[in-house]
Amino acid sequence: MTSTPSKPASQTPPGPPEGSNLVPFVSVDNMMKLVNAIGVERVLTELADYIEDDFRRWPHFDKTPRVASHSKVGVIELMPTSDGEYYGFKYVNGHPKNTREGLQTVTAFGVLSSVENGYPLLLSEMTILTALRTAATSAVAARHLAPKGARTMAMIGNGAQCEFQALAFKAMLGIDAVRLYDTDPGATAKAARNLQGTGLAVTSCTSGEEAVEGAQIITTCTADKQYATILTDNMVGSGLHINAIGGDCPGKTELHRDILLRSDIFVEYPPQTRIEGEIQQLDDDHPVTELWQVITGDTAGRTAPEQITLFDSVGFATEDFSALRYLHDRLRGTGFFEELDMLADPDEPRDLYGMLMRASAASRSD
Amino acid sequence: MTSTPSKPASQTPPGPPEGSNLVPFVSVDNMMKLVNAIGVERVLTELADYIEDDFRRWPHFDKTPRVASHSKVGVIELMPTSDGEYYGFKYVNGHPKNTREGLQTVTAFGVLSSVENGYPLLLSEMTILTALRTAATSAVAARHLAPKGARTMAMIGNGAQCEFQALAFKAMLGIDAVRLYDTDPGATAKAARNLQGTGLAVTSCTSGEEAVEGAQIITTCTADKQYATILTDNMVGSGLHINAIGGDCPGKTELHRDILLRSDIFVEYPPQTRIEGEIQQLDDDHPVTELWQVITGDTAGRTAPEQITLFDSVGFATEDFSALRYLHDRLRGTGFFEELDMLADPDEPRDLYGMLMRASAASRSD
Fold it and tell me: What family name appears in the similarity comment (chains A, B) (predicted)?
């Protein structure tokens, strides 16, 4: 695809290791091919294992807060983290007004690098990958928190994340029925259509109240950009698990405060969730449990059948890191990537200018 | 180069603007072709104008400190900034031990995005581009600080940055003679060879003392990773301009402290330079002048012939931003880029899963 600059035949040893200047790139097209070749549910399940492994290693991670650049119309963020072996970051924007212009609200890409030498190992689209990791993370949390034997999930908000959530809970928790509701019936119809033939019994509902009937798990993933009350207190019976995905930035929440006060709350990274999650409605010292401590067994998850558990998910850099690490491992032996000539590799590191001159000479002699 | 996933013929309006999912990518190969097509000296001069324009707009910039991830063997950094219209960041690593393995100490790439919609506009290699912007920045500073009529520059440290500095000072300040010195004679020989035929009179010297003889400008760009004394006090006569490039991280300096005490010191961004630059040797409140204020005319640059001016340069995110902005403008109408299918663009933003399913169906029908 790309061609490397021609080198003189007598390359001085040691010289750069062959191909070290080339960075594998996973395009949107190749990401879709890879996911379809493996199968969506299998990707979600395998990815969940990487995410859970990394949560288990939580203290090893360098957890930098995301670096945000705000403007009047949106935000651009960099989310870096490292486990000491790999370094990863995600670029992600959020521009709610983009949909009016036929553009995506969120686009994302990411890079995985070697901590040992600082070289990028992988560049990937991350819009699809983020949708997958968000659903896989929800299912990881629910594996530890949802009531045993849960079979029915209510899904309030039927946007881009909906089908991924449904399939992750089917594959990993044995959910066999989903009850869909969205303020836009078109979104519900889209999700119902997409979930046909997946083995899930799909019920389209006309209200949130109808959607939660008989459900043991409630997933909220609406896209409202303001404080909203997708779930009111009377909709949430005892013993439920709530998987709250949509509250993910300051000023954006989905649940009535009273629900939070009745729930045991589990979060990814408290300093971030207190700003971005549902718990921004609560006092700063309201007790929450970190998910990683449930996964390691340091803290209890669900302890009683009548308990309401709430996973207040905002998405964290380690989940993107896990996704990039999974992708890096899974790419091996496939053709689902291209190689980008992204890193300069002069034969003699100090001779960058000489490399430039030789490229000029080479192109003149073409 | 890349193929976009096939779309159904009846795309629902408004739909994503044509090609908005494609991100122009400038490989190392294309960067060299672009620079050679324009000419190195012209690139340096044009780039210097972008850098100077952005220094002039300094208060407009969102100046985030770089986000560093340190390990025992090196560092990986993200350097973001924005002027409210564009957003840019550079990824750069620093691994001194890499050269022993035939790898680069530093690799870099960067992204320029639209603040308006958050979409990346450009992905580029930045090893060559950083070398160019560093030299152009030095020349911008010298344009305001060096003694009038300077013709001879001493260059101590003849590594990857050397030739770019020499050509920037030739093109922008009228330097016609350079005096080279490096502790490794092989580096000096390399730089002298590369500068043949550029119109510069090149003198290879066997000591720093010899190199500074008759020079009006001294550029230090050594790669020592520790406190070093490349210039001692007695080597610096009155009236000189010192362009100190190599002191660029904590614990790495090039100049004897006494030189700093005799100089008027100009820096890019004091909070960063006090940590990384030559002035880490001085008290935290030692007076320094910000280069942008000299460029806008708010503060005087050189005020007397006998004054020693010192540009204590560590490299700042706005310079990378200027370089990406220049590249973005300069790419137009050239073929020196590829287009990467990096951003998912489902026809209906909420139907990411449907896009994935249709890709699967399309590949089965291939």
Answer: Belongs to the ornithine cyclodeaminase/mu-crystallin family.
